From TrEMBL:
Keywords: Cell wall, Glycoprotein, Secreted, Signal. It is found in: Secreted, Cell wall. This is DUF642 domain-containing protein. The gene is LOC123430464. Transmembrane segments: none annotated. GO terms for molecular function: enzyme regulator activity. GO terms for cellular component: plant-type cell wall. The lineage of its organism: Eukaryota, Viridiplantae, Streptophyta, Embryophyta, Tracheophyta. It comes from Hordeum vulgare subsp. vulgare. Residues 32-188, 200-364 form the DUF642 domain. InterPro entries: DGR2-like_dom, Galactose-bd-like_sf, Pectin_Meth_Modulator.
Length: 378
């Protein structure tokens, strides 16, 4: 019930987006990297003590607080090299440190934020991303990519035309220099929610979602979210305590339909969920693709879909080279609201240690008039 109300609230507010867009003439931030979002412009030498940034305004376009280090590619710590993915520089947020930037946005529009983070010495790192009163604590404890860097996403709705976007490390480690390294912070305007004709689901093809860097080799993780917060993957919620799903795009990955899809990388520990209005007693048909992202995840996969009282396990033998099959599940709604849920039954890992899994895409839900068999499978 909590989730239903939350999603409704988010949807209702979204109706105001069109009005907000029409009324606003000020130029807002454009999609892509934020100004100095990759920390290419660093502090002057005189404003660094070793790697520690000394002034609040020493990094162009950013304001910092606490123990923030400016890390350049090739920097070593405790004998380990800290590799920087985008360009040559990044920042490390020590205990209770934060960075923030004031950005111009369109009031009432929805935005997703993408940034890359790497865990360093602490075991259970977290990052608190916030805009005004909206905030989300993203778990950074599992490394999904063998290189150590992952891109994370978060979403907010702009309540004002200028907002502070902040990333804060709430951690308290013995070594104040422990904490995640952050790089490549980007933003993207999310589309007002629309339904495609002939599909009761919103964004069923996952074409709208967080910003993916054109040269990013690893997709974008969509972390678990509170039931009443906005999703960087419009229409969809990730339900989990700490795990994520991965948003992938063509041509870097193979996707079954359109340009983007979701890879279920956390087994049963994360579920991809959407709630739709249904009429109790009426018959519906859910259809979707299950495939692999052509990322070398050569495994025997199973995606399980749950709707109302029905469920379907879709087997998929991945060669790791891209491929897919269409699955179909007919069911009868038992309530006014039906949750459509997808999970991967197993954990999968590539030989290099990168977590991977089945891809789901082009999910459609339609009302069918005949009382069809409860389960069909193609
Ligand atoms: C630089 O850091 C060292 C070690 O933390 C400290 O002793 C020194 O006072 C700092 N220098 C400046 C100029 O703040
Ligand atoms: C995250 O940051 C926001 C804004 O500073 C704050 O209101 C919120 O309490 C923080 N959440 C946690 C769990 O620290
Ligand atoms: C469905 O909605 C109708 C009208 O809002 C309401 O009367 C009914 O109790 C609801 N049924 C369920 C199962 O929630």
């Amino acid at each position: 019930m909590g989730m239903a109300e939350g999603m409704m609230r988010c949807r209702c507010m979204a109706l105001l987006v069109l009005v907000g867009v029409a009324a606003s003439a000020v130029s807002a931030v454009s999609d892509g990297l934020l100004p100095n979002g990759n920390f290419k412009d660093g502090p002057a030498k005189s404003e660094l003590n070793g790697t520690v940034v000394m002034g609040r305004h020493s990094i162009p376009n950013w304001e910092i607080s606490g123990f923030v280090e400016y890390i350049q590619s090739g920097h070593t710590q405790g004998g380990m090299m800290v590799a920087v993915p985008e360009g040559a520089s990044a920042v490390r947020l020590g205990n209770d440190a934060s960075i923030r930037q004031n950005i111009r946005v369109t009031r009432r529009a929805y935005y997703s934020v993408t940034f890359s983070a790497a865990r360093t010495c602490a075991q259970a790192e977290k990052l608190n991303v916030s805009v005004a009163a909206d905030s989300g604590v993203l778990p950074v404890q599992t490394v999904y990519n063998s290189g150590g860097w992952d891109s994370y996403s978060w979403a907010f709705r702009a309540m004002h035309s200028a907002v502070w976007l902040a990333i804060h490390n709430p951690g308290v480690e013995e070594d104040p220099a422990c904490g995640p390294v952050i790089d490549a912070i980007a933003i993207k305007t999310l589309q007002p929610p629309t339904k495609t004709k002939g599909n009761m689901l919103r964004n069923g093809d996952f074409e709208d979602g967080p910003y993916i860097f054109p040269d990013s080799p690893w997709g974008v993780l969509v972390p678990p979210m509170d039931e009443d917060s906005c999703s960087p993957l419009p229409g969809w919620m990730i339900m989990s305590s700490t795990k994520v799903v991965k948003y992938v795009d063509a041509p870097r990955y193979r996707v079954p339909h359109g340009a983007r899809a979701v890879e279920l990388v956390a087994g049963r520990e994360a579920a991809l969920v959407q709630e739709v209005r249904t009429v109790a007693g009426r018959s519906y048909r859910l259809q979707f693709y299950v495939g692999d992202a052509a990322n070398g995840c050569k495994e025997s996969m199973v995606v399980e879909a749950y709707v109302a009282a029905a469920s379907l396990k879709v087997q998929y033998q991945s060669q790791g080279k891209g491929g897919y099959r269409r699955a179909m599940l007919d069911f009868v709604a038992v309530g006014n609201l039906t949750r459509v849920v997808f999970q991967s039954l197993h954990y999968h890992m590539k030989v290099d240690g990168t977590l991977c899994g089945p891809v789901v895409d082009d999910i459609s839900l339609v009302s069918v008039h005949k009382r069809a068999a409860r389960r069909l499978f193609m």
